[in-house]
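anyone seen this seq b4? input:
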Amino acid sequence: MKLGPGARSQCANAVSALLSSPLHGCQCKRGMKKEKNCLSIYWSLHQSVIHGLNLVESYPYEAVERDYDYVRLASITADSDAGMVTVNRCLDAAKACNVDDLCQKLRTEYVSACIKPAARSGLCNKAKCNKALRRFFDRVPPDYTHELLFCPCIDTACAERRRQTIVPGCSYEGLEKPSCLTQMRTCRTDYVCRSRLAQFQFDCQPAESSANGCKHGNYGDCLLAYTGLIGSSITPNYVDNSTSSVAPWCSCSASGNQRGECTNFLEYFTNNICLRNALLAFGSRTDTLPTPSQSGQFSSAAGKEGYVTNPPPATTQTVPEPVIPTQASGNDRLWGDSTSDGFPNSASTLGLLPLMVFTGFLLLSLLSNGH
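predicted toks r here
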């Protein structure tokens, strides 16, 4: 209207021309150097008034090839698991991250950024924390990040370690829960957050008629899309240390006549059969299509975990990391991750043998001489 009666027609022609050009099929890579610039081009094509787009139907990111190296992860902690009846997958994931240079470096960076208080306010720098979190989840392979974030456990201390993975006191929580509608609107004004939300809504779209509860049938893609939201205005996390329920830090209590829209958004996390089954399937180390009978087992297990794990005894840590107290136990070290199994180092023990033998011969010599 502001540009005159002919502007709408000219705009339609310009959009049509662009949609028939190579730009129409362009995509972006999550975490790429100029991600925001790439996404601005994508949305200029797909989110005009004339060429509207339902977020659930598409998103701008190219597919990611996932190759979870579970065999390598298992070998890292094989020695510490020897003789143990149960294992702590969350602790094992942390140990695996510590022996990978990139994972350890970026994890240490975001933990440091998220727990460091500002000089004036005494609070953490939330923007810096979230930026470091996005860097970690975008650059570290999913076989490390997913093990840290989705490790299964019903033990309270283990579940609290998992909940603290993203340092929720800085990245997730606030003094009061904002409206989910406010979070959603804020997200849609940012190209990156808007794209991550679109990917999540697409890859985690529920379908009751699907064998595994997911319209597109891929648990791994759903979990990858979920991690893409971490560090955004609608960062999701575990709501407590007793269940595997997840949600963004927001509420629909003051949504007024838009309560339906707000509830639909929130229930995409809290009542999403696709996301719930993906979390449970990861606990059993499967992200393939289950059989119909397996799907029923996953669906009926809402709010329960697939593994019972107990944390191993405290051991000497090899990588110094900040300590964050848990609600379950003040002595539970979420960031001091042990890489030993609690037994003496065999190499060190063997190193003491020559000294012991020499001491024995010296004593025998003194005794034989009457001393």
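The mean pLDDT is 74. The first strand starts at residue 236 and ends at 238. kinda curious what u guys think
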